[in-house]
Amino acid sequence: MNDLATIRPAAAPVGKHKPPEMHDVAQSLERAFLAEMLSFMGVKEMSGEFGGGAGEEQFQTFLRDAHAKLIVEKGGLGLSGHFLKNLKGK
Questions:
Q1: Distance CA 26, CA 16 (A)
Q2: Considering the entire predicted model, what is its pTM?
Q3: Tag placement on the chain: N or C end, fewer CB within 10 Å?
Q4: Where is this region: Disordered (predicted)?
Q5: If you write DSSP's letter for every residue of 62-90 in order, what string do you get?
């Protein structure tokens, strides 16, 4: 007899996965929008011993995302309220 034939896959727990709150989704959309707008503004490259290079280019996205997150946490542009209304269908 094959022991592997008797093994059943574990079922995913029902009701354990909580979908993200609409407010969080709306704020994420505003953060993404702000990060994209900040990328179009451009960040002035640093010069000297500690500036420039491929590393600076690669990590600029992290800096833009952090700035966008801080802007949204401080109230943002008010877009998340509009996004939330649309997500709720009102």
A1: 23
A2: 0.66
A3: N
A4: 1-21
A5: HHHHHHHHHHHHTTTTSHHHHHHHHHHT-
